[in-house]
Specification:
CATH superfamily of the largest domain: Vaccinia Virus protein VP39
Strand order of the largest sheet: 4-3-2-5-6-9-7
Shape: elongated
CATH class of the largest domain: Alpha Beta
CATH architecture of the largest domain: 3-Layer(aba) Sandwich
Low-confidence stretches: 1-10
Mean pLDDT: 92
Structural class: alpha/beta
Largest sheet: 7 strands, mixed
Distance between the termini: 65 Å
């Protein structure tokens, strides 16, 4: 009996063979790597990756899928399955040797953004991530200043990660088809950040406040943090808006506020 996709888990199973082959190609799994799949579902990516790599760790919330995955994967290699909510999963427990984690998956749209923020807390042990995301979310991750998709998410993600949009996946590649187009994205943690904040919580607050009132000028949205005297010595103009600032601008601004 076929598994019925569960709306509460945001399940849309990838079925298009050409798309699956393209994704496997960009993941480029190798036997010596520590590969982690989030949400293996019915094994569309799991089984071909396991066939190549011979070992794979996967995290799946839907317990009804786990036994079927174990059975299907047995002839191909060693699949280590965790039955868990990935939003609460401690990825540190997977780091058992010198290898960094390579994480991939077709992420449920309803958890993709909080999951990426959760994964940021483990950035030091991650080599790269390759995810299928809702196209609009992917565009927000990669957006540049002065564009429609640029916002808080763009700044916070790009501070930690390099974002590469690879290719789009149409709704008819899934069962059931979602109502939106998807995009394959590669996320690579910066080995050395191009700019560093002195007070990360303050940086996060400044970015949130600036974009929370994005139609206001920075003078108004950040008036609690920046006095006229501070603006007078800043390289940024107080009449600019949040979407005009680059990631490095926000870093410089937060560091200036930290200094007082």
């Amino acid at each position: 009996m076929a598994h019925v996709p569960r709306k509460r888990f945001g399940q849309h199973f990838l079925t298009d063979k050409e798309t699956i082959a393209h994704i496997i190609d960009v993941i480029s799994p190798k036997p010596e790597e520590h590969l982690i799949e989030i949400g293996p579902g019915q094994g569309a990516l799991t089984l071909p990756v396991l066939k190549i790599a011979k070992q794979l760790t996967a995290i799946e919330l839907d317990r009804d899928l786990i036994e079927k995955l174990k059975t299907a994967s047995a002839p191909l290699g060693t699949l280590t399955l965790y039955s868990a909510d990935v939003l609460n999963f401690d990825f540190e427990i997977l780091k058992q040797d010198t290898r960094l984690l390579r994480i991939f998956g077709n992420l449920p749209y309803n958890i993709s953004t909080p999951l990426i923020f959760h994964l940021l807390t483990f950035h030091a042990i991650i080599a790269d991530m390759c995810f299928m995301l809702q196209k609009e979310v992917a565009e927000r991750l990669a957006a540049t200043p002065n564009t429609a998709h640029y916002g808080r998410l763009s700044v916070m993600i790009q501070y930690h990660l390099q974002v590469m949009l690879l290719f789009d996946v149409p709704p008819d590649a899934f069962r059931p088809p979602p109502k939106v187009t998807s995009t394959i994205v590669r996320l690579i943690p910066h080995e050395t950040r191009p700019y560093t904040v002195n007070n990360y919580p303050l940086f996060a607050t400044i970015v949130r406040e600036a974009f929370g009132q994005r139609r206001k000028t920075l003078r108004n949205s950040l008036k609690t943090y920046m006095s006229d005297a501070m603006w007078s010595v800043s390289h940024l103009h107080p009449d600019a808006r949040a979407e005009n600032l680059s990631v490095s601008d926000f870093v410089i601004l937060a560091n200036q506020i930290e200094k007082g």
